[in-house]
Design a protein that fits this description.
By secondary structure, this protein is mainly β. The chain has a single domain (13-19, 29-91), classed as 10 Kd Chaperonin, Protein Cpn10, Chain O, CATH 2.30.33.40. Helices cover 0% and strands 29% of the residues. The chain has strands at 13-17, 40-46, 62-64, 71-75, 78-83, 90-91. Strands 4-5-1-2-3-6 form a six-stranded antiparallel β-sheet, with no helix packed on it.
Length: 97
């Protein structure tokens, strides 16, 4: 895993955004400038400063953040986003079987 050895500092949270679709369901190609960033992200790592904050989510959970929230970073050639706990608007409930 490209994230081994990387730990967010303080209360920073490392998340992964899914790529936006390349085309619509109808087959129209979406130009790069028109693509929206995904707002549902997966929490990959949380800094030690998140302990004791009473957050309702943890590593492995999916959460909702704003389109332009966070700082884009590249680790091991892969794009990730660093956010603060205040950027999280909601935690998604895991789907049950």
């Amino acid at each position: 895993m490209a994230l081994e050895g990387y730990e967010p500092m303080n209360s920073w949270i490392l998340v992964r955004r899914e790529e936006s679709p390349e085309e619509t369901r109808g087959g129209l190609v979406i130009p790069e400038v028109a693509k929206r960033k995904q707002v549902v992200v997966e929490v990959l790592k949380m800094g030690a400063g998140c302990d004791g904050l009473g957050l309702d989510f943890g590593v492995g959970d999916e959460v909702i953040i704003g389109d332009f929230d966070g700082t884009e970073v590249v680790i091991g050639g892969e794009p990730y986003t660093m956010i603060q706990p205040g950027n999280v608007m909601a935690a998604l409930e895991p789907e049950s079987c």
